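Notes for week 9. Today we move from apo structures to complexes. The key idea is that a small molecule is not decoration. When we ask for a structure prediction with flavin-adenine dinucleotide present, the ligand SMILES becomes part of the input, just like the chain. The input block below holds both the sequence and the ligand string. Read it once before you look at the output, and try to guess where the molecule might sit.
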Amino acid sequence: MPSTILCDVAIVGGGLAGSLTALALHARRPDLDVRVIEGGTAFGGHHLWSFFGADVMKAHRPLIAPIVAHAWPDYDVRFPAHARTLAQPYYTVRSERLNAHIRATLPALALMTERKVLACSTTAVVMADGDRVEARGVIDARGAGDLSTLECGWQKFVGQELRVAPSGGPATASRVRW
Ligand SMILES: Cc1cc2nc3c(=O)[nH]c(=O)nc-3n(C[C@H](O)[C@H](O)[C@H](O)COP(=O)(O)OP(=O)(O)OC[C@H]3O[C@@H](n4cnc5c(N)ncnc54)[C@H](O)[C@@H]3O)c2cc1C
Protein backbone atom coordinates (compact mmCIF):
# COMPACT_ATOMS: atom_id res chain seq x y z
CA MET A 1 0.00 0.00 0.00
CA PRO A 2 1.41 3.44 -0.88
CA SER A 3 2.78 5.34 2.10
CA THR A 4 3.46 8.98 2.97
CA ILE A 5 6.87 9.86 4.37
CA LEU A 6 7.13 13.04 6.46
CA CYS A 7 10.50 14.81 6.71
CA ASP A 8 12.14 18.23 6.98
CA VAL A 9 13.90 18.42 3.61
CA ALA A 10 13.46 16.22 0.54
CA ILE A 11 16.19 16.41 -2.09
CA VAL A 12 15.02 15.06 -5.46
CA GLY A 13 17.99 13.67 -7.43
CA GLY A 14 21.14 12.27 -5.85
CA GLY A 15 23.64 13.46 -8.45
CA LEU A 16 26.59 15.69 -7.59
CA ALA A 17 24.42 18.67 -6.65
CA GLY A 18 21.83 16.74 -4.62
CA SER A 19 24.42 14.64 -2.80
CA LEU A 20 26.64 17.60 -1.89
CA THR A 21 23.60 19.56 -0.72
CA ALA A 22 22.60 16.64 1.52
CA LEU A 23 26.14 16.34 2.93
CA ALA A 24 26.34 20.11 3.56
CA LEU A 25 22.92 20.12 5.28
CA HIS A 26 23.88 17.13 7.41
CA ALA A 27 27.17 18.81 8.46
CA ARG A 28 25.37 22.01 9.56
CA ARG A 29 22.06 20.64 10.79
CA PRO A 30 22.39 16.96 11.72
CA ASP A 31 19.08 17.30 13.59
CA LEU A 32 17.14 17.68 10.32
CA ASP A 33 15.39 14.69 8.77
CA VAL A 34 16.72 14.91 5.20
CA ARG A 35 15.82 12.41 2.44
CA VAL A 36 17.72 12.11 -0.85
CA ILE A 37 15.53 10.50 -3.50
CA GLU A 38 17.51 9.06 -6.40
CA GLY A 39 16.14 7.15 -9.39
CA GLY A 40 19.36 5.20 -10.03
CA THR A 41 21.08 2.55 -7.95
CA ALA A 42 23.96 4.79 -6.80
CA PHE A 43 24.47 8.40 -5.79
CA GLY A 44 26.48 10.51 -8.22
CA GLY A 45 25.91 8.37 -11.31
CA HIS A 46 29.05 7.33 -13.20
CA HIS A 47 31.21 10.42 -13.58
CA LEU A 48 34.76 11.60 -13.22
CA TRP A 49 34.62 15.29 -12.27
CA SER A 50 37.65 17.57 -12.33
CA PHE A 51 38.18 21.13 -11.13
CA PHE A 52 40.82 23.74 -10.35
CA GLY A 53 41.58 24.63 -6.74
CA ALA A 54 40.24 28.16 -7.28
CA ASP A 55 36.84 26.75 -8.40
CA VAL A 56 35.94 25.83 -4.81
CA MET A 57 36.08 28.41 -2.02
CA LYS A 58 38.34 27.56 0.92
CA ALA A 59 35.36 27.45 3.28
CA HIS A 60 33.69 24.79 1.10
CA ARG A 61 36.72 22.51 0.66
CA PRO A 62 36.04 20.27 3.69
CA LEU A 63 32.84 19.20 1.91
CA ILE A 64 34.74 18.03 -1.18
CA ALA A 65 37.97 16.77 0.45
CA PRO A 66 36.66 13.26 1.36
CA ILE A 67 35.70 12.52 -2.25
CA VAL A 68 38.85 13.74 -4.01
CA ALA A 69 40.48 10.77 -5.73
CA HIS A 70 43.53 12.50 -7.27
CA ALA A 71 45.27 15.86 -6.81
CA TRP A 72 48.00 17.54 -8.85
CA PRO A 73 50.03 20.61 -7.79
CA ASP A 74 49.67 22.29 -11.22
CA TYR A 75 48.23 21.85 -14.70
CA ASP A 76 50.07 21.66 -18.04
CA VAL A 77 48.45 22.97 -21.22
CA ARG A 78 50.17 21.72 -24.39
CA PHE A 79 49.59 22.55 -28.03
CA PRO A 80 52.14 21.70 -30.77
CA ALA A 81 53.53 25.25 -30.86
CA HIS A 82 52.74 26.34 -27.36
CA ALA A 83 52.91 24.98 -23.83
CA ARG A 84 52.47 26.51 -20.44
CA THR A 85 51.91 25.46 -16.86
CA LEU A 86 49.04 26.89 -14.85
CA ALA A 87 50.20 27.29 -11.26
CA GLN A 88 46.87 26.01 -9.95
CA PRO A 89 46.23 22.77 -8.11
CA TYR A 90 43.89 20.44 -10.00
CA TYR A 91 41.62 17.79 -8.51
CA THR A 92 39.55 14.85 -9.67
CA VAL A 93 36.49 13.45 -7.94
CA ARG A 94 35.05 10.00 -8.69
CA SER A 95 31.34 9.33 -8.34
CA GLU A 96 32.12 5.97 -6.66
CA ARG A 97 33.78 7.90 -3.84
CA LEU A 98 30.82 10.27 -3.55
CA ASN A 99 28.47 7.29 -3.35
CA ALA A 100 30.60 5.60 -0.65
CA HIS A 101 31.00 8.85 1.32
CA ILE A 102 27.31 9.78 1.40
CA ARG A 103 26.41 6.21 2.44
CA ALA A 104 28.97 6.32 5.26
CA THR A 105 27.91 9.80 6.46
CA LEU A 106 24.11 10.04 6.24
CA PRO A 107 21.74 7.76 8.13
CA ALA A 108 20.41 4.85 6.02
CA LEU A 109 16.88 6.25 6.32
CA ALA A 110 17.96 9.39 4.44
CA LEU A 111 19.15 7.51 1.37
CA MET A 112 16.41 6.44 -1.04
CA THR A 113 17.76 4.88 -4.25
CA GLU A 114 15.84 3.30 -7.15
CA ARG A 115 12.94 5.64 -6.42
CA LYS A 116 11.81 7.44 -9.57
CA VAL A 117 10.07 10.74 -8.94
CA LEU A 118 7.11 11.63 -11.14
CA ALA A 119 6.58 15.19 -9.91
CA CYS A 120 7.46 17.50 -7.06
CA SER A 121 6.35 20.82 -5.64
CA THR A 122 8.02 22.98 -2.97
CA THR A 123 6.62 20.75 -0.22
CA ALA A 124 5.64 17.39 -1.79
CA VAL A 125 7.15 14.64 -3.91
CA VAL A 126 5.19 11.99 -5.81
CA MET A 127 7.03 8.79 -6.66
CA ALA A 128 6.35 6.29 -9.45
CA ASP A 129 5.70 3.49 -6.95
CA GLY A 130 2.83 5.51 -5.45
CA ASP A 131 4.66 6.64 -2.31
CA ARG A 132 4.60 10.31 -1.42
CA VAL A 133 6.98 12.50 0.57
CA GLU A 134 5.75 15.57 2.42
CA ALA A 135 8.52 17.94 3.52
CA ARG A 136 8.95 21.41 4.95
CA GLY A 137 11.01 22.08 1.82
CA VAL A 138 11.82 20.24 -1.41
CA ILE A 139 15.03 20.85 -3.38
CA ASP A 140 14.79 19.81 -7.03
CA ALA A 141 18.26 18.53 -8.04
CA ARG A 142 17.22 16.38 -11.00
CA GLY A 143 19.92 17.83 -13.23
CA ALA A 144 20.02 20.44 -15.90
CA GLY A 145 16.67 19.58 -17.51
CA ASP A 146 15.73 20.90 -20.94
CA LEU A 147 18.58 22.98 -22.38
CA SER A 148 17.07 23.25 -25.85
CA THR A 149 16.49 27.00 -25.54
CA LEU A 150 20.18 27.69 -24.86
CA GLU A 151 22.76 28.23 -27.57
CA CYS A 152 25.62 26.11 -26.25
CA GLY A 153 29.12 25.60 -27.57
CA TRP A 154 31.06 22.39 -27.24
CA GLN A 155 33.81 21.42 -24.87
CA LYS A 156 35.79 18.27 -25.70
CA PHE A 157 38.17 16.50 -23.40
CA VAL A 158 40.81 14.00 -24.42
CA GLY A 159 42.56 12.33 -21.52
CA GLN A 160 45.33 9.79 -21.38
CA GLU A 161 45.24 7.02 -18.84
CA LEU A 162 48.52 5.34 -17.98
CA ARG A 163 48.37 1.91 -16.35
CA VAL A 164 51.57 0.92 -14.60
CA ALA A 165 52.20 -2.68 -13.60
CA PRO A 166 52.99 -2.88 -9.85
CA SER A 167 56.09 -5.07 -10.34
CA GLY A 168 57.71 -2.72 -12.84
CA GLY A 169 56.31 -4.62 -15.87
CA PRO A 170 55.35 -2.88 -19.12
CA ALA A 171 53.04 0.14 -18.93
CA THR A 172 50.07 0.52 -21.32
CA ALA A 173 48.48 3.79 -22.35
CA SER A 174 44.90 4.25 -23.54
CA ARG A 175 43.09 7.35 -24.71
CA VAL A 176 39.92 8.27 -22.90
CA ARG A 177 37.40 10.64 -24.52
CA TRP A 178 34.34 12.07 -22.78
C1 LIG B 1 31.76 12.15 -18.14
C2 LIG B 1 31.38 13.52 -17.59
C3 LIG B 1 32.36 14.29 -17.00
C4 LIG B 1 32.06 15.54 -16.48
N1 LIG B 1 33.04 16.24 -15.89
C5 LIG B 1 32.75 17.42 -15.33
C6 LIG B 1 33.76 18.14 -14.67
O1 LIG B 1 34.91 17.71 -14.68
N2 LIG B 1 33.44 19.30 -14.03
C7 LIG B 1 32.15 19.76 -14.06
O2 LIG B 1 31.87 20.79 -13.48
N3 LIG B 1 31.18 19.11 -14.72
C8 LIG B 1 31.45 17.98 -15.35
N4 LIG B 1 30.47 17.31 -16.01
C9 LIG B 1 29.15 17.90 -16.06
C10 LIG B 1 28.37 17.20 -14.96
O3 LIG B 1 27.37 16.43 -15.56
C11 LIG B 1 27.79 18.16 -13.97
O4 LIG B 1 28.78 19.02 -13.45
C12 LIG B 1 27.16 17.44 -12.77
O5 LIG B 1 27.10 16.06 -12.91
C13 LIG B 1 25.79 18.00 -12.61
O6 LIG B 1 25.28 17.48 -11.41
P1 LIG B 1 23.76 17.52 -11.06
O7 LIG B 1 23.63 16.87 -9.73
O8 LIG B 1 23.23 18.91 -11.24
O9 LIG B 1 23.05 16.69 -12.20
P2 LIG B 1 23.13 15.12 -12.53
O10 LIG B 1 24.53 14.61 -12.38
O11 LIG B 1 22.46 14.96 -13.84
O12 LIG B 1 22.26 14.46 -11.39
C14 LIG B 1 20.86 14.43 -11.39
C15 LIG B 1 20.42 13.20 -10.62
O13 LIG B 1 19.01 13.21 -10.51
C16 LIG B 1 18.52 11.92 -10.77
N5 LIG B 1 17.18 12.07 -11.33
C17 LIG B 1 16.82 12.74 -12.45
N6 LIG B 1 15.50 12.65 -12.65
C18 LIG B 1 15.01 11.91 -11.64
C19 LIG B 1 13.71 11.45 -11.28
N7 LIG B 1 12.63 11.75 -12.02
N8 LIG B 1 13.56 10.68 -10.16
C20 LIG B 1 14.63 10.37 -9.39
N9 LIG B 1 15.89 10.78 -9.66
C21 LIG B 1 16.08 11.53 -10.78
C22 LIG B 1 19.50 11.30 -11.79
O14 LIG B 1 19.46 9.88 -11.75
C23 LIG B 1 20.82 11.89 -11.30
O15 LIG B 1 21.47 11.05 -10.38
C24 LIG B 1 30.73 16.06 -16.54
C25 LIG B 1 29.76 15.27 -17.16
C26 LIG B 1 30.07 14.03 -17.66
C27 LIG B 1 29.00 13.21 -18.34
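Helices lie at 16-28, 61-64, 95-105.
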